[in-house]
Amino acid sequence: MTDNINKNKSTLLKKEKRLALILLLPTILIVLSVVIFPLLANFWISFKPVTLGDLRPPKLILNERIKANISGNSQLIEVHYRYRNSSIKYDLKNVIIKDKIPSSFKIKNIQPSRFCKIVLKELICDLNKVSSKSSGKIILTLQKNDQWQKNLDNLKKTKPLVSFTSKNVLTSFDFSTENFKKVFSAAEFFEVLKVSFYYTIFGTAGALLVGLFAAQILQKSFMGRSLVRGLLLFPYVSPVIAVAFAWVILFDPFSGIINSMLVQMNVIEKPINFFGQKYADVIIFGYVFKFPLALSMVITFEIWRYFPLSFLFILARMQSFPEEVYDAAKIDGASPFQQFYYISLPFLIGIMSILFLLRFIWTFNKFDDIFLLTGGNAGTRTFTVNVYEQAFAISNLGAGAAVAVVIFIFLLSFSLLFMKYSKRETF
Amino acid sequence: MFWQYGLFYSIFSGCIWGVFWQIFFTVVGILTLGTPLNLELSQIMIIGPLAGIIFIKSQKFLSLKFHLFAIIAISFMIFTSHLGDPYQAKDENQLIIVLLIFFTSSFIWVSLNHSLYNLKPGKLSKHDIESFYIKFMWGIGLIVLILITLIPFYIMIMTSLKNQQSLILNPLDLSVNLNTDFKTLFNSYIELFTNFNFHLFLINSFIVSCTTVIITLFFSIPGAYALARLRIPNKKIFSAAVILIYLIPSIVLIIPLYTIFSYMGLRNSLFGLMLVYPATTIPVALYMLRGYFSALSSEIDDAALIDGLSRVQIILKIAIPLSKPAIVSVGLYVFMIAWNEFLIAFMFLDDPNIFTLSRGIMSLNSSEIPQQHLMAGAVIATIPVMVIFLYLEKFLISGLSAGGVKG
User: Fold this and answer.
1) How many Cα atoms within 13 Å fall on the side-chain side of residue A110?
2) Of A2, B342, B344, B406, which shows the fewest CB atoms inside 10 Å?
3) Which pLDDT does position A9 carry in this prediction?
4) How are strands ordered across the β-sheet holding A122-130?
């Protein structure tokens, strides 16, 4: 009896497993093909000297031209085949050109004759190797025979066939660590590292603190609270491209409102290029400090755009908190600051640390905002912008992929940290 | 010490509120008049505290008449202290200047009313002092938060309604002349829809976003159900993998995606986007929906199983109807991600006929195209999200807070 139950149980379990697999299969497939496979491909590319130009594989370009009336003889025709290797880097191997010759012609001469032969009215040229950038010409001299008719036997009717093997850098098995050497040895590597961490730490912490502040304000009920709560989420829900350009125009040195306002009110003498100036000199007590202006602006944007998220999470957590605890504290004579410091803050610290870690990961991976605001110039180049810069601006895909690998390694270590922490806090 | 007295706080808050509203209304004046106004703060730094003292001393006999009297008195003080010409503006704007001063003083008075309410001028307890600080910070914080949130949107809308000459002539003039006809006012929008193919971009964005939502839900609902309900070996590892994949940013994938899709000829096509977007949103949706499904009581499922329903029927007839609001939230959130996506659209699309809005706006970012066109494009891209947001705020907020750590 129990045997039977166990057996039933195990078949049920098997069935369930199979069903689960079927239900999850589409997800697994699409994620494998669009996330996991590219991720592995990225590692592959990072070990290869690939440039943007290599995405067009090397080709043999062939032109066929016909010249009639050779040296005054109307019966003689010359066919010129010009070929060229399209690549400036890679040789083409096993190059074979084939072309059918209509039977109404007689072959007089082939030049160069050592590559080419005629097999069953077909020209076959085995060029073996066409090295990079090189080109050449095959001249076939034909004579019309008696079957020739003007319109029927056009030599151009049959297209010459070309076959070759070329080396594809992407699929070949040559690897080099050139890209990583380049990425790590560049003088800007530490600059990029520094900027990335500045941006991430200040952006994350700032958004979190402003979010905490906003949540404190919105916790108190007042008229129009839900309206204000909706308003404060605007920066987060609107498209990044719209708000980023609005900021750029707002702070534009020539036609921006902030600059002309500050000049009109005599706060500054001449307009400041907020997103294009790396350092601004700030004089405090006679000392001149170099203030990283563009970077700070980008961080400010980051805080502005993402504080709503922290605010939302913190507010949700605060509203789940029992009001009686505060009442009890009031009776015990706790002042408002004490209530915040000893009751609210310890209660929120869990969600805030989780939020910090998650937002840290996301801010570290942020690309769009910086790219749209400064294009990574003026001392705002983080790792993510560097990927784009290397891969598509300098068109060195390999180096870009190497930077992406560096990002992924950081991401992985942050995520492991996050998982370790989030186990303790139910999220 | 002096900071234990209510009088000090009335002076302090009078000073801060005075300076705050003076700056605010000077800026408002500049933007509505379009002429430079002088910002002079030294007078208000005396008048503000004075108003504070008046308020705290007269708290016992506050009445509507008194409020009106106080506001007029403050206005008068501002006016005379600047020798009758507070902003050094042209004479023809006299009416607006008077209005500005009136607004400045009434806002100062109302703010003082809020932050000094029930505060004694004499010695205060620690509790009273902290309550004052909290009230004061609450007021200033609320206004500043609303302002900094809205200013970029305000600039966006106002710039899009201007024309090129007035923008170059005077960047400060953000007033909109409502007497101008519809065509000149919305010139940039008309231009975008007639000459820049924005109607196509709008349609493309809708197609891509809606397809993404449909594919995502179609894939993730059964997946999430399986993760929430069925016994799967190594479930924990699988869930962790979902989170990890969800954290991978598209910038890490963009080079291989660009390469592979170029080879396959899928790069410059909407189909390519519709393949990539769901792959990035499915893990988020899976993560969110799994949470919702786990919260449903599993007894219903067991009862249904005993009644002879298959698991697929349970998903269709029980799980989906019961978690409709959750599915709407997830769908809206995914729609928002797809609609706002920039990087992949920017890298993939070259053909102007298949641009999405993000990509289309990027093509407006050149020195040859006037700024107001760019801002009009930004407004066009923002409006649909805002409409959805305002209509279905509750759903979107719950979507955001369930999975919104991404983005």
Assistant:
1) 14
2) A2
3) 72
4) A116-119, A122-130, A92-100, A161-166
H or E element that contains B101: helix B94-115
Query: How far apart (Å, rounded) are the C-alpha atoms in residues A20 and B229?
Result: 9
Looking at residue B201, what is its pLDDT? 94
Question: Tens digit of pLDDT for each residue in A266-277?
Answer: 778 888 888 988
Tell me, rounded to whole angstroms, the distance of Cα B293 from its chain centroid.
Answer: 31
B163 touches A at CB < 8 Å: no
State residue A2's pLDDT score. 61
Asked if B261 and B267 touch (Cβ cutoff 8 Å), the reply is: yes
Burial of A189 from C-beta contacts in 10 A (0-12 / 13-18 / 19+) = middle
Going from N- to C-terminal start, the domains of chain A cover 58-166, 180-422
- Residue A137 β-bridge partners: A82
pLDDT tens per residue across span A184-194: 887 788 999 99
By the 8 A CB rule, do A175 and A48 touch? yes
List the single best residue of A10, A34, A372, A407 to mutate versus B (max B Cβ within 10 A): A34
Which of B42, B251, B393 is the best mutation test for A, with the most CBs of A within 10 A? B251
Q: What is the pLDDT of residues B168-209, one digit of tens each?
A: 667 777 666 666 777 778 888 998 899 888 999 999 999 999
Q: B281 versus B35: which is more confidently predicted?
A: B281
Question: Where do the domains of chain B lie, and which CATH numbers do they carry?
Answer: 2-169 (no CATH), 190-403 (1.10.3720.10)
What is the DSSP secondary structure assignment for residue B5, as one 8-state letter?
B
Q: Please report the pLDDT score of residue A244 as a whole number.
A: 95
Q: What is the DSSP letter of A67?
A: E
Q: Which residue of chain B is at minimal alpha-carbon distance from A213?
A: B141
Check: CATH 3.40.47.40 for A180-422?
Answer: no
Structure tokens at A168: 């594809």
Sign of CA dihedral A143, A146, A147, A150: positive
Subunit contact B340:A33, Cβ cutoff 8 A: no
Chain A hits for B365, CB-CB cut-off 8 Å, are: 245
- Model confidence at A407, in pLDDT bands (50, 70, 90)? very high
CB B197 within 8 A of CB B355: yes
The residue with tokens 């309550």 is B131
Contact between residue B57 and residue B38 where contact means Cβ atoms under 8 Å apart:
no
CB contact under 8 A, A241 and B361: yes
- Which residues fall within 8 angstroms of residue A65, CB to CB, at 6 or more apart? A79, A80, A82
Radius of gyration of chain A (CA): 35
Pick from B226, B385, B405: which is nearest to A239 by CB?
Answer: B385
- Selected for mutation to probe chain A from B221, B252, B335, B365 (highest A CB count within 10 Å) is B252
Q: Whole-angstrom Cα distance, residue B271 to residue B269?
A: 5
State whether A33 and B279 contact (CB < 8 Å).
Answer: yes
Q: What is the pLDDT of residues A223-250, one digit of tens each?
A: 888 889 889 989 999 999 999 999 999 9
Residues 21-80 of B with CB under 8 A from A: 26-27, 30-31, 36-39
Beta strands in A131-269 (DSSP E): 135-144, 161-166
What homologous superfamily is domain A58-166 in, according to CATH?
A: Mu homology domain, subdomain B (2.60.40.1170)
Which residues in chain B have Cβ-Cβ distances shorter than 8 Å to A237?
Answer: 336, 385-386, 389, 396, 400
Which residues of chain A lie closer than 8 angstroms to B130, CB-CB? 335-337
Contact A246 B153 (CB under 8 A): yes
Could you tell me the strand order of the sheet in which A73-85 lies?
A60-70, A73-85, A135-144, A105-111
Among A391, A307, A364, which Cα is nearest to A51's? Answer: A391
Instruction: Indicate yes or no: CB of B253 within 8 angstroms of CB of A35.
Output: yes
